[in-house]
Design goal:
Layout lengths: L2 E3 L2 E3 L6 H4 L13 H12 L10 E7 L5 H5 L4 H7 L4 E8 L1 E2 L7 E2 L3 H18 L3 E5 L4 H8 L6 E10 L9 H4 L24
Antiparallel strand pairs: 1-2, 3-4, 4-8, 5-6, 7-8
Amino acid sequence: MAITSNTRTAAHDIDPVFLNRWSPRAFNGEPIPQEVVMSMFEAARWAPSAINIQPWRFVYAHRNTPQWEPLFHCLMDMNQAWVAQASILAFILSDRHRRKPGAEPSENRSHSFDAGAAWAYLALQANHLGWAAHAMGGFHVEKAHTALNAPEADYRIEAAIAIGRPADASVLPESYRAREAPSGRQPVESFVFEGRVSALT
């Protein structure tokens, strides 16, 4: 049964929460109460992870605080243009290693996969609370490792995340306004295969 919500249509029966979540760029700068911020991170806490290692790490800052500027200046200019009106800027990192007391750290092959699950939980909780979260890869990696005090040998910086109250597209620079709408997705049949992967195109 097709489900339609937020200008999107799912070909199969799913909860509308998955259609309602999207990644806007237009924010109104409204401060987010700290307890609401922590509610989003609490949701991320409950994401699944291999052997319950929970390799995700978040570094965040509220806008108009001393912690904001070092993180903001890690972003590429194209993202600074709209993130400036977000309420929270965060980075999600993943620990590359399994760490057990009394043992040498060992490779954790699924660290990025697990961190992605934590991001998804955070994004869904933000939407549930009436806020929005937009993840982006447009940041200067070396600068971010320094600003976050996260050695590259130990951590992979997965994404930057802007969080805020959605606003009308008119608050954006003109070049971004036409793109301010929920995006579609490829059909399920294009990425789901029974038994083996079909020829790649």
